[in-house]
User: Fold phosphoacetylglucosamine mutase from Eptatretus burgeri.
Amino acid sequence: MCVCIRVHVCVYVNRPEMCFRRNVIFIMHYILFWMLCLQEDNGVKLMEGLGDMLSVSWEKHATSLASAQLGELRTQLSALLRDCPGSESSSPVQKYHVLIGQDTRASSKVLAQAVSDGVTDLGGTFKDFGLVTTPQLHYLVASHNSDGLMGEPSLDGYYRKLSEAYKALMAQDIKAKHEFLPCLAQHVCVQQCACSGDPRMKILQAKPQPKIEGSYPLTMDGANGVGAPKMVELLSYLKSSLAVKIINNGESGKLNHECGADYVKIGRRAPKGLQMLEGRIYCSLDGDADRLLYYFVDKSGTFHLVDGDKISTLMAIFIQHLLKEAQLPFQVSVLQTAYANGSSTRYLKDTLQLQVYCLPTGVKYLHTKAKECDIGVYFEANGHGTVLFGKRVLDKVAEVMQDSSKPETQRAAATQLYHTSQLINQAVGDALSDLLAVEAMLSLLDLSLPQLYALYTDIPSRLLKVKVIDRQQITTTDAERSVTHPEGLQAAIEERVHHHLQARAFVRPSGTEDMVRVYAESKTQESADCLAHEVALLVHRLAGGVGEEPRATT
Ligand SMILES: CC(=O)N[C@H]1[C@@H](OP(=O)(O)O)O[C@H](CO)[C@@H](O)[C@@H]1O
Assistant:
């Protein structure tokens, strides 16, 4: 058995020999994701994953480490830092400056101590920020590296930046509300759905509950992780401009246990113990607060999930509208992975006429591509994502904001774009920042969560896992949508897909689990389930499946 311990450490390394303009030290930063794998033989292996936040189910982790293992961690860290580019520098100044953040698990303290000892041994310096979310740590690194341009490199700076941007964004109204997009106008939507007997009808007719004094329109499930206390801190900066009720705040429950974004997404159900009411809206973070999902129930009590695809649709709509109002000819691109629901891709391309790209799984690919775009909106279906604004766009936005010869509406839209760019974490997908952005965008567009949900209907899908002898034997192309090895597997998948209506299916080796993932979409849930099972069988037979053949899901 392999037990993984996630150490929430972010390391960046100064390279004093590479001085930049204004004597700014070029800081090469390494976002290190450490996994300490206690193998069967109790050997210790330290792995690093640059930039990518791997998701490991936290409750399975051990919470304490033997001192021998801590010593090993320290040695490994020292070796890693020694091998870093630039470490050959003999500069007496700062060789390394390391930022450390901790998660809520008891093991964090000793692990942080081991890291700081390792850094000190090497003559480096460190700053331990204690309890922070993963995106907060990214913000701290990015703001430090940008020499304050991105915001103050402190938690106070983070909260001030987000809360000020939120308040400023909310202070201005969007004139046209959601009528600028005919498909969003409630009456059109309701009429269309009613005529076609569309099941979205009952969702759209649901009336939001009137606000009751002392109640909260939004309930946030903190997954018993770091997001809950950090949201409390953020709310104290927002004062009365946003009210959120927080559940699963870690005071009694276990991290991600029967709660959190993954639990909600996989099971399409509320976190344990939450009684959902029609007219209320709910959201869940994951344990380190980089994922965000929304949900609600309709009249009949049916659960509806607003996933990362729908959140990115909202953000793309909002920004596209502001660009038009500000008369700025920039392109909004939406970056997805193969797991994005086919309906969302069609809606973004055909209805909104946006540029959509499909990238391999993992936010590092999405983030890299987003940096090349004017405005890159990226979200994984699991709710991890953000929006990046290119420098060219921000320069032009600033120009229009300050140009008094431009009409007021144009300048106001440019100002809204500016505040949006300040509100959304530019370093990485951030559940707290995304939550504020979703709240502001829904409110400014005068759009309810059910309306957002009803913009398009997800194609039924199924995700399965298959264990094989060596998952690396499976290679893929076309953003992981087509298998290149083993031979014959892709043709066999395609042959199966043809037996289903409006179907697609793909398989890829997981980057975080020793599994091959199988994904299928089809016209009905039964057909998606059946196709996923057929493809899982093909993987098992043609790619060295381990154990019994996968059974059909019911
Ligand atoms: C289907 C799926 O959800 N895949 C997840 C999962 O990657 P895999 O490579 O599929 O194990 O973990 C990644 C890291 O958290 C996340 O980015 C990705 O979305």
Notes: The chain has four domains: 3-131, 177-306, 308-446, 461-542.
